[in-house]
Write a structure and sequence with these properties.
Chain lengths: 308, 311
Amino acid sequence: MSLPLRLLRGRGLPTAARSGAAAGRFVWLAPAALLVLAFMAGPILSLATGHSVDGIDPAAAWAGPGAEHLLGTDALGRDVAVRTGYALRVSLLVALVAAFVSLVMGGLSGLASGFVGGIADRAFLRVLEVLQALPFIFIVILVTMLTRELVASWSVGLSARALTQAGTVAACLGAIQWFSLARYARSLAVSVRSADYVSSMIGMGFSKWRIVWRHLLPNTLVPMLAYATLLVPVLVLEEAFLSFLGFGVQPPYPSLGTLLSDGASAMESAPTMLLSSCGAILLLTVCTNVLASRLASRFAATDVRGGG
Amino acid sequence: MLSASRAVVVRLAVAALVLLAVYGLTFALMRAAPGGPFTSMHAGSAAVRSNLDARFGLDKPVPEQFVTVLAGYLALDFGPSLTFAPGVPVASVLGDSLPVSMELGAWALLLALLVGVGLGALAGLRPGSWTDRAVSAGSTLVVSASVIVIAAIVRSLFVVHLRWFPAGGFTESASGKVLPVVTLGLAYAAIFVRLVRGAVASAVGGRLLAGAMARGVPYRAAVLKYVLPAALVPLLGYMGTAAAGILTGSFVVETIFEVPGMAACFVSGAAARDYTLVSGAILVYAALLMGLNFLFETLHEVVDPRRGRAS
């Protein structure tokens, strides 16, 4: 789902809440620690319980939550807790890679457009406007469906196929989320370009490349990185959506979307599956939301609304 | 300076080019997928398959098919569906399922606006109050959960466990509409709440309210006449994006609540290589979204003339 990113940045917080937040300056530590824990949860749970992520055990199918299986088992007797743990890692990784793809696409195009300026820049803004209005999620569904079926016919190992598909999902999702980042990068480039020291460097005949390498990139990289973290919760949800429909991450990799879809189809017999996958999605989105808005308000404080 | 009519012509030309590109992309993706519409259907009989291919023109060279279908689109003919509803015109398949999705989306948008503007204004009028904190926390939670989690939880609670609402039945009864509409509506209400809250809070803190009250306008009237209208303008700027998001969100809601809308049509059409149905659906959606975006943008410019001049 696409949210207007500036809404996620916490700058709309009431003053009272903001002064309260000053007391809790280290509030970001909690979500950060939770995210690290979520990333490690799969292997830890697997070690602690002795169940592997795809250890099929038909005799134990649909076991309820208990000492043997913390959150019960699914239709194939796989441990739901271990699978949820690994799914957290898979979903987080896919979202991070996708955010990186967005960062590269949006960052490079936006910086170039803002730095070059002129007609090219105006045309770029128009193109962004048009692209933003297109239902790209349908194209993503088509691409991931296509790769899912092409990959299925490859004669490589199961996990190599799943890895390819997960990479495709990340690339596709990243490729449709870069518009707001491009706008932001463009506004950063415009402000660097119009800074006095840059115009005097141009006047003194320094090469454009030197300005780009020594001044444009160093001055814009951190704000862009911080801004890109805002995409992570959005991307977590989009991956869940694709995997829920069956086009996302493929077995043997578990993902929060596939677990949610398994849980939704077995909500009578095994409600813990549904609840644990919902809880896991919430954990990821809430933690990444809190952390990202912290990072963005700290490091990406330039007003992006002026950027067209 | 472009005149208004010339701007419209330019926009239409751009829209036509974009639709052409979308069609080309969809065409290429569908043809690149392994297997055709009829490969799995009649696995044994090659004769039946080639007959079907011939009937729908799939035996012709691919560039020729591309042009034939494109020519059909220019005449507003979407061609026959191949596998989802074999032989039935795509236009009538879409005509059956699109209104269902649109109905779901329209009710959800209405609910989202009512709840979002109401709660957002309530919270924004008293920044920092308990109401404000509760509303902000609630909207953060709902935004984080998003349509997908809310839909799954709501369905399992109210349909499976409590049995208060029927499973499915969106098109049959009003009670079948409640949960899908509420789920989708709430998810977007949470976003609207944040937008409206921020705008109202800054309008209340700004000169707008103080000025009106200094002129002797009572607080209540000042809020209704000056603050709220000013706060609703940013909402218009977000409506185009929201419309797109509601279309996608409705995919999840339709799948979970078994609503016979575009989701079922598109997903099973794509899986069954129904070339014409898939590209028809994507084109209709793209046109719809561009149209809505244009509408909201124009409204936004009419309401807030600064915007038109700035960009």
